[in-house]
Specification:
- The chain is built from seven helices and seven strands; from the N terminus they run E-H-E-H-H-E-H-E-H-H-E-E-E-H.
- With 204 residues, the protein is α/β, with parallel strands linked by helices.
- It has one domain: Rossmann fold (3-Layer(aba) Sandwich), CATH 3.40.50.300.
- The chain has a seven-stranded mixed sheet, sandwiched between helices.
- A hairpin with a 5-residue loop joins strand 6 and strand 7.
- The mean pLDDT is 87.
Amino acid sequence: MSKAKQPTLIIFAGANGSGKTTVAKLLLPKRRIKEFVNADEIARGLSPLNPTGQAVAAGRLVLKRTKELIAKRESFAIETTLSGNTLLQNIVLAQKAGYEVEMHYIFCADINVNIQRVKTRVKQGGHDVPASDIRRRYWRSLRNYVRIFHEKCDKIAIYDTTAGALVEIADKDHRAHYVVFDDGLFHRFTMKLIEALDDERRDI
């Protein structure tokens, strides 16, 4: 299969408040990806005044649209916290259809920064996520990344947004080790992965 014809699934992953949507809107125009399947945006479309109440319906529409795009072999992007169970099925389905799967993992080292960013977003009219959910998804996202997704994706880029700026700290492809661009930030990321694996009680 020629690279020119190979479709791409781009995944923007990370905990709530990490900056996924911001990074997606920055990177996607450069990639000529026409469709960004975003559950939060879909929920706002269903109910601008109560998007949180439409989360389940939006999730169903995301699954439906994702399957439609894969069936058509069209390149597209999606956003996820990596805390659920459906993404792996979509990756397997996409790769069977000939897709290259590329993940951009957006990481914030301080969970309190994630929580504060969500609060700021709410003040600006965005959707809310309870702090307890943010904390649970934060650790589950890291754990699922290292246990499942870093070996399933064909390409990965990791970013740190802790200080506000977007810093790419490492990348890899399926057949290679990580290429590290910032040793200190990558070490901090790996320490958080270890912390997530060491204490699964954080999910409770």
